Amino acid sequence: MRSVSVTMNITLDGAVQGLGRPDEDTRGGFPHGGWGNRYQDEVLGREMARGMNQPGDMLFGRRTWEDFIGAWAGRDDGNPFTAHLDAATKYVASTTLENADAWQNSILLPGDAVSSVARLKAEPGRDLAIVGSAALVRSLHAAGLVDRYTLVIHPLTLGVGARLFDGPAPLTEFALTRSVATTKGVLIAYYERV
C-alpha cells in the first residue's frame, strides 16, 4: 500500500494561495501573489531538495499540474527540481482534462479524485507526494487518505486567500516527527498521522 504525503506552504493564518508569483492564482481577486518569495534561503532550499530526493510518484490536482507545466516542464537550466519533476510519474486528478499528454510521464486519474486516489493508494507502487493542490488535499484529508504533512509555515498573515482547511475536516491526529527553522523565520514542520 502506498502512502500519501503533502508538502504545503502556508501562512500563519492558514492561507495557501499564490505563493510563487503575482499571477499564480488570482481567483477571488487575491492581491498577494508571490508572498513566499522573500522567505527563500539556503535552509529552505536544502529541506525542499531533501523531499525531492525521496523516491516516489507525484499527485496533482489539475490546476496545480497545469501551473507546474508552465513553471517547470522541460526547463533546460540545470535546476535539479526540473529534472526530478520531468522524470517523476505524475498522476493528475481531474474531472475536466481529456488527457495528460502535455507533460511527460503524466497519467490522468479521471472522475472522482477521492475514489481514484484511494484505488491508486491501495495498489502496490511508490509512495505519492503532493506539492500544493490545496483543493485536492482538502478532499483527500476529509477521506482519511493523507498520511503525512510537511507544512512550510511562513511568518506572515494575509487576511485573505484560500485556506488549507476550509470547510469540514475530520478530527485527525498527527505527531510532529521533525522541525527545522530557516534563517528567515520559516518553520518547516513534519507531521505523520498517529
Give a quick precis of the structure.
With 194 residues, the protein is α/β, with parallel strands linked by helices.
> Structural class of the secondary structure composition?
alpha/beta
Q: Can you say what the CATH homologous superfamily is?
A: Dihydrofolate Reductase, subunit A
Assign a percent range to the helix content: 25-40%
How many domains make up the coordinates?
A: 1
Distance between the termini: 17 Å
Spans of at least 5 consecutive residues whose pLDDT stays below 50 are none
**Proportion of beta-strand residues:** 25-35%
Q: Predict the CATH topology.
A: Dihydrofolate Reductase, subunit A
Which CATH top level class fits? Alpha Beta
Largest sheet: 8 strands, mixed
- Strand ordering within the main sheet: 4-3-2-5-1-6-8-7
Number of helices: 5
Order of helices and strands: EHEHHEEHEHEEE
The overall pLDDT average reads 93
Backbone CA Rg: 16 Å
What does this molecule look like?
This is Dihydrofolate reductase family protein. The protein is an alpha/beta fold. The protein has one domain: Dihydrofolate Reductase, subunit A (3-Layer(aba) Sandwich), CATH 3.40.430. It has 5 helices and 8 strands, in the order βαβααββαβαβββ. The protein has an 8-stranded mixed β-sheet with strand order 4-3-2-5-1-6-8-7. β7 and β8 (187-193) form a beta hairpin. The protein is globular. The mean pLDDT is 93.
